[in-house]
Amino acid sequence: MDILPVEIERKYLARLPQDVENEATYIRQWYLPAEMINIDDGLILMGRRIPQEPHQKEWMNGILEAIKQTNPTIRVRITDDKAILCIKGKTVGIERTEFEWVLSDPSWFEQQLSTSGWPFVEKQRWEIIATDGHVWELDLFMGANKGLVLAEIELTDANEHYTKPDWVGDDVSGNWHLSNQQLANNPFANWEPSMRVSLERRFKYPQ
User: Fold this and answer.
1) Which is nearest to 48 in space by CA: 134, 106, 5?
2) What is the dihedral of CA 164, 170, 176, 182, to 10 degrees?
3) What is the mean pLDDT of each run of 10 residues along the chain (207 residues)?
4) DSSP one-letter string for 65-89
5) How far apart are the C-alpha atoms of 72 and 28, rounded to whole Å?
6) In angstroms, what CA-CA distances link 129 with 84, 155, 162, 164?
7) How far apart are the C-alpha atoms of 190 and 36, rounded to whole Å?
8) Which residue ranges form the domains of the chain, and what is each CATH number?
9) What whole-number distance in Å separates Cα of residue 158 and Cα of residue 148?
């Protein structure tokens, strides 16, 4: 039986709390075309072989299925001194398979990605522990997506109970336009005025 890692996540509109204390992490993440991944007895990304993860052989069917999607999610995230490849499967409800690898030589990937012209997003992220113990990831978007603040919570079960902090607004988990991949391809700054108005009418930011 395949051992497939699954991401269960909800996304919300949010605002930055005034009392946030911990420092933010600066994140850039690029979305790569499927041809940048080659598969033989392992994975090759941008011409470089990726160190294998312990369950990679069991993952292989899920990885192939994810890459063969019409618009596959193949993401490289760069933070401080780390680069992580993530391949995501098809979303079903709020669940999807998610495969990750820590990449060696992050500075090389950063240099290549910075000049690639591939779509990307940049943001500051805070990890905030709520009073009920759940960890929220709060993203303040920058660049072409400036003005967006989104909060995400990862769950162990789609029906898991949690309490929203007062700085978390309406659920936008099913809003395709607010996925990071879509924001990379069609950033907030490029939205038609009618789309912005529609967002404001459908989803209210917390006051």
Assistant:
1) 106
2) -80
3) 85 89 94 95 94 90 94 96 96 96 96 98 96 96 94 96 94 93 96 80 57
4) HHHTSSS-EEEEEEETTEEEEEEE-
5) 19
6) 23, 14, 12, 11
7) 27
8) 6-202 (2.40.320.10)
9) 25
